[in-house]
């Protein structure tokens, strides 16, 4: 009987971050995936074959000379639904980019006809070297997804870009890549900017005006865009969630800070999705000291002034073929309010969703209607927030100008 479980090849390069791949393997197997681990020979110096075999339930080899009768160097790649390499070292990226087949993993990469994801991990100098960047660009041009490394503590005392993202976030990339099946990464070569969370407008050093946005929808958009090949910048306002693997996260607090960060990131973006809940107003005056209660007296009213309208500003400025998407969280006459907002803001797409008690904010699910500037409506039934994210990116991709063909 054929095993119905999705088949994943987990390639492991020879880096100290190989220990993190054990957690990724556990998440994949426990969520119902059939995983074959294919390490390089040197990767087994970091984590031994017995560990991989115990966690995967399959024998482990790095050599094409094992299981010759099974033609493993061809079969593994051809039968896989996903090949995920973590960590992908500079050496492994170079060998993959140039079509080497000198071990079982690189041979598997050559025979794979499924989505291939590389999660690089190395020292900053190696990641930033022009040779590595050229290899990454070459792999991406061939349809591979190369996840941007995280920034943080590396081996020894070094800190910088080159850290392997956390296994939980790598698992989300794998899950979303499997979800897309054999479809090409249609955001490859694109830069997308996503705002997420809710801004806070300070009243005094202790208090602020805020909202209930958690950032879950914005982060779902970011994770989905990474799995579709995009370079992703997230401008996150007061979000208490792990950074999405492969995304650059810029943290802000207020609407003014979000405006500055979004406009800067949007300068070279193909699409901007304003999923954040940006405060419409802020206190006219900031108190340097905490406002105290005065016995027997009512508090002084707090005067408010309007915040900049970031979505309208993005839509109105000269932007060429950049696609701008807004979100509208409404409580009454949702569609009517959304249509009025779309006309007023001037964006290309507006995602309208009803909010309130147990709706949207802080929940893993969402329902919405996506309105377009040409009058079309796309309803998205309640489901995981990644479902809405995929619909949004589908509509964005339809509106992106085709890239010139590579000579």
TrEMBL record:
It comes from Actinomadura rubrobrunea. It catalyses: N-[(R)-4-phosphopantothenoyl]-L-cysteine + H(+) = (R)-4'-phosphopantetheine + CO2; (R)-4'-phosphopantothenate + L-cysteine + CTP = N-[(R)-4-phosphopantothenoyl]-L-cysteine + CMP + diphosphate + H(+). Pfam families: DFP (PF04127), Flavoprotein (PF02441). In the N-terminal section; belongs to the HFCD (homo-oligomeric flavin containing Cys decarboxylase) superfamily. Residues 192-407 are annotated as: Phosphopantothenate--cysteine ligase. It comes from the Bacteria. Its EC number is 4.1.1.36, 6.3.2.5. Catalyzes two steps in the biosynthesis of coenzyme A. In the first step cysteine is conjugated to 4'-phosphopantothenate to form 4-phosphopantothenoylcysteine, in the latter compound is decarboxylated to form 4'-phosphopantotheine. Keywords: Decarboxylase, Flavoprotein, FMN, Ligase, Lyase, Magnesium, Metal-binding, Multifunctional enzyme. GO terms for molecular function: FMN binding; metal ion binding; phosphopantothenate--cysteine ligase activity; phosphopantothenoylcysteine decarboxylase activity. Residues 187-398 form the DNA/pantothenate metabolism flavoprotein C-terminal domain. One of its GO terms (cellular component) is phosphopantothenoylcysteine decarboxylase complex. Residues 7-173 form the Flavoprotein domain. InterPro entries: CoaB-like_sf, CoaBC, DNA/pantothenate-metab_flavo_C, Flavin_trans-like, Flavoprotein. One of its GO terms (biological process) is coenzyme A biosynthetic process. Signal peptide: none annotated. Residues 1-191 are annotated as: Phosphopantothenoylcysteine decarboxylase. CTP binds at residues 280, 290, 308-311, 327, 341, 345. This is Coenzyme A biosynthesis bifunctional protein CoaBC. Pathway: Cofactor biosynthesis; coenzyme A biosynthesis; CoA from (R)-pantothenate: step 2/5; Cofactor biosynthesis; coenzyme A biosynthesis; CoA from (R)-pantothenate: step 3/5.
């Amino acid at each position: 009987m054929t095993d119905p479980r999705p088949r994943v090849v987990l390639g492991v390069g020879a880096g100290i971050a190989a220990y993190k791949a054990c957690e990724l393997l556990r998440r994949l197997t426990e969520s119902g995936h059939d995983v074959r681990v294919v390490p390089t020979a040197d990767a087994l110096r970091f984590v031994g074959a017995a560990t991989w075999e115990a966690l995967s339930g399959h024998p482990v080899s790095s050599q094409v000379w094992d299981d010759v009768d099974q033609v493993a160097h061809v079969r593994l790649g051809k039968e896989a639904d996903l090949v995920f390499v973590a960590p992908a070292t500079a050496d492994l990226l170079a060998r993959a980019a140039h079509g080497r087949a000198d071990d079982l993993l690189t041979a598997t990469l050559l025979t794979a006809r499924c989505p291939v994801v590389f999660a690089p991990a190395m020292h900053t100098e190696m990641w930033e070297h022009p040779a590595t960047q050229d290899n990454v660009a070459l792999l991406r041009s061939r349809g591979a997804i190369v996840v941007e490394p995280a920034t943080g503590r590396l081996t020894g005392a070094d800190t910088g870009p080159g850290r392997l993202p956390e296994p939980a976030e790598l698992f989300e990339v794998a899950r979303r890549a499997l979800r897309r099946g054999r479809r090409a990464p249609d955001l490859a070569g694109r830069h997308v900017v996503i705002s997420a969370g809710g801004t806070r407008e300070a009243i005094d050093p202790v208090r602020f005006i805020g909202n209930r946005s958690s950032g879950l929808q914005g982060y779902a958009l970011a994770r989905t865009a990474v799995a579709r090949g995009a370079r992703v910048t997230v401008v996150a306002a007061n979000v208490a969630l792990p950074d999405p693997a492969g995304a650059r996260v810029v943290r802000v607090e207020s609407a003014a800070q979000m405006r500055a960060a979004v406009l800067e990131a949007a300068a070279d973006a193909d699409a901007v999705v304003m999923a954040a809940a940006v405060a419409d107003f802020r206190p006219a005056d900031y108190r340097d000291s905490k406002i105290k209660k005065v016995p027997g007296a009512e508090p002084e009213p707090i005067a408010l002034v309007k915040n900049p309208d970031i979505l309208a500003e993005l839509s109105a400025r000269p932007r060429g073929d950049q696609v701008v998407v807004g979100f509208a969280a409404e409580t009454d006459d949702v569609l009517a309010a959304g249509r009025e907002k779309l006309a007023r803001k001037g964006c290309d797409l507006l995602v309208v969703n009803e909010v309130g008690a147990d709706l949207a904010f802080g929940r893993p699910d969402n329902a919405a209607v996506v309105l377009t500037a040409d009058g079309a409506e796309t309803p998205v039934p309640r489901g995981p927030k990644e479902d809405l994210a995929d619909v949004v990116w589908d509509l964005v991709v339809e509106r992106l100008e085709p890239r010139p063909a590579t000579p």
